[in-house]
Amino acid sequence: MISEKDFIYTENTAFLNKGSFKWSAPSNIALVKYWGKKEHQIPANPSISFTLNQCKTITKLTFKKKQDTVTFSFDLLFEGKPKEDFHPKIQKFFERIELYCPYLKDYHFTIDTQNTFPHSSGIASSASGMAALAMNIMSLEKELNPKISDEFFCQKASFLARLGSGSACRSVKGSVVIWGNHPETPNSSNLFGVEFSSEVHPNFKNYQDTILLVDKGEKQVSSTVGHDLMHNHPFAEQRFSQAHRNLSAIKSVLKNGNIDEFIIIVESEALTLHAMMMTSMPYFILMKPNTLEIINAIWKFRRETKIPVCFTLDAGANVHVLYPENVRVTTLQFIKDELVGYCQNGQYICDEIGLGSKLLLEK
Ligand code: DP6
């Protein structure tokens, strides 16, 4: 069993002068949700997600050897322009991963990042952003130590991404990723995400996710604060056991292709996530009136047409509309006719299941 110690880098460090890499990493949408964590970004329950294809962060990391090895040194660019607001987050990330990547203090970095989804769309970029940065850091580590295997590369990238943002560890690989110890999933780990190892039923091939942008404003309560409110939460233990059961159930569904069962699990998970927020102390609501309008419209459409469209939510007001590829045209028409009116400025993003992070450029 791989442990945290295996991720500590012990080889030579400062012998490279300069270089650069560029990686893209996608966002992901959880089907069984991670909500609640222990120290060091260890999840309170296991989760499973679809990796997305279109919503991505593209990050170029340029490194140059520096004289002092005492501090972290980096410049941040967002869409080519300096973006100092991200500084504290990246500083904290580097501090958290320093033990595992001691070479970070040997170099000055320029981290140049952009998202494929619209700026301030309310789509969290922390998963894709942290995953893209972690992949770049692992490319540097591989330059320093070419012996590492592809498997180790991805495991450690996911491990590092997790320390930036929990859900980011599910953005290294595609197309279905499990994160967190789950006794019924033998290779599962609290330390990094693993690919769902069984064959996914053709019903879920190219599964569609249309993201309806209901509210693009800043959230009143961040995910990090929300996770924390699961400590001493009156329903926490039941919720964590339920997530274990739902993960077992959805694994069977992904193999047997039962979309009706899929819908029940996924929608229940989304509503349970928000129920946890509403029953925290202090309590809060991230859904907006239009989130509920959309949910009701999806239920009506499904009842009337028998087309298996369902929804899920992340920690915000936006709605992810999930449906099989073979009902794409009709569903998109329904979205345009009946749901777009509930979106802020009519904005939505068409996405589907994807394959994970990609190396775009080396050196
Ligand atoms: C509701 O990964 O954003 O999207 O680990 O504090 O960065 P931190 O939280 P984050 O939490 C995501 C929560 C969720 C569910 C999920 O993606 O599983």
Describe the structure.
The chain is of the alpha+beta class and 363 residues long. Helices cover 33% and strands 24% of the residues. A hairpin with a 3-residue loop joins strand 2 (37-38) and strand 3 (42-43). The longest helix has 21 residues, at 236-256. It is globular, with a radius of gyration of 20 Å. Bound molecules: ligand DP6. The site of ligand DP6 has 17 residues, from helix 4.
What keyword list fits this structure?
single chain, 8-stranded mixed β-sheet, binds ligand DP6, alpha+beta, 4-stranded antiparallel β-sheet, 363 residues, 8 helices, 24% strand, globular
Q: Can I get a quick summary?
A:
Helices cover 33% and strands 24% of the residues. A hairpin with a 3-residue loop joins strand 2 (37-38) and strand 3. The protein is built from 8 helices and 14 strands.
Percent range of helical residues: 25-40%
Low-confidence stretches: none
- SS field, number of helical segments: 8
Q: What class, by secondary structure content?
A: alpha+beta
Number of strands: 14
Can you list the ligands bound to this structure?
A: ligand DP6
* Gross morphology: globular
Order of helices and strands: EEEEEEHEHHEEEHHHHEEHEE
How can the largest sheet be summarized? 8 strands, mixed
Query: What's the overall average pLDDT, rounded?
Result: 96
Strand content range: 15-25%
